[in-house]
Amino acid sequence: MGSSAHIRGRVRRAAGNLARSAPAQRVARRIVAASEPPSAPGSVDEGPGAPTADRAGALSDDRYTDEAPDIQATLDLFAGEWSTSVPTDTPTVSGPAPLADDPRVHWFIDVLGPIDGWSVLELGPLEGGHTAMLEAAGASVTAVEANHRAFLRCLLVKNLLDLRATFLFGEALGHMDNDIAAGTRHDAIVASGILYHLVDPVAAVTRMAALTDRIAIWTHVHDAETIARRRDLDGQFAEATTLTGAGRSYGGRVHLYADAPAASSFCGGGRPHSVWIDRDALLTLLADLGYDDVQVAFDEPDHQMGPALALTAVRSGI
């Protein structure tokens, strides 16, 4: 057996051979730390997993910060991923879209409301901008988000804006199935920017209809005539498809994501494709589900990403 100093030297050389990547370097540091003599009496030993400082005082573990809390630094945890321009008390940089002051959601509230005291289920909150608007109008919001990084951004926004809303990580259809099984009802369901990311939007709307008499939707839709003249959309659509629900069939078109998911800011569906329901099919589906008061606004056949519209659907007599 060699001396303890000799053994520590061998451990250091072995750890040096191991350190070929960042994770391996962390393991190597822990091996070396474990081989060192115990701390002197009275010293603080934070353990081998604790971050260490180099001689200049900089942290060697980027999972930590040595700066005071700062809103911009918090937003920068997701730098390059934000879609929402997050409203803060001080100037900050987040995303490009003013989703916390969205005219489509103002319109939803004006048409359906007043919504003070309502229970609202929001499907696909993205980053909580619309959630904040619904809550500011007095609603109690439960928001379900399936993208795990978007869900974490929702929690960050909840913290920054001091929201009361409940954010749930999971798939919207599964959540609605649970609500249906439990006999839960909602005063309204808001689904802005989610239907066109699903492979079965008819199934989603059918479940909404089982949970509420008031629906607000913003979505892209398939419109054959419009898309045929939109050369900028060439290659984004595949075969026509048929979806079933409410005892009938409804047309749509397979939409291809292609390389879009590779972008850090991508916030679409989790499969290689989705289905855009035909515009007229969506309106027919709502009528078949008993919504006899349907209003359409923000009808944009030339939206840069493809035909889009906003609508509210209400069963009269409620």
Textual characterization of the structure:
Helix content is 32%, strand content 20%. It contains ten helices and ten strands. Strand 6 and strand 7 form a beta hairpin. Helix 1 (4-18) runs antiparallel to helix 2 (22-35) and helix 7 runs parallel beside helix 8. The longest helix has 15 residues, at 4-18.
By CATH, the topology of the largest domain is Rossmann fold
* Residue share in β-strands: 15-25%
Number of helices: 10
State the share of residues found in helices, binned by percent: 25-40%
How would you write the strand order of the largest sheet?
3-2-1-4-5-10-9
Q: What's the overall geometry?
A: globular
Count of extended strands: 10
SS class = alpha/beta
The Cα radius of gyration reads 26 Å
The CATH superfamily of the largest domain bears the name: Vaccinia Virus protein VP39
The major beta sheet can be summarized as:
7 strands, mixed
How much is the average pLDDT? Answer: 86
| Name of the CATH architecture of the largest domain | 3-Layer(aba) Sandwich
Compact summary:
The chain is built from ten helices and ten strands.
Write the layout of secondary structure elements.
Blueprint: H1 4-18, H2 22-35, H3 71-75, H4 103-112, E1 119-123, H5 129-136, E2 140-145, H6 148-161, E3 166-169, H7 172-182, E4 188-192, H8 201-211, E5 214-220, H9 224-228, E6 237-245, E7 248-256, E8 273-277, H10 279-288, E9 293-300, E10 308-314
Parallel strand pairs: 1-2, 1-4, 2-3, 4-5
Antiparallel strand pairs: 5-10, 6-7, 7-8, 9-10
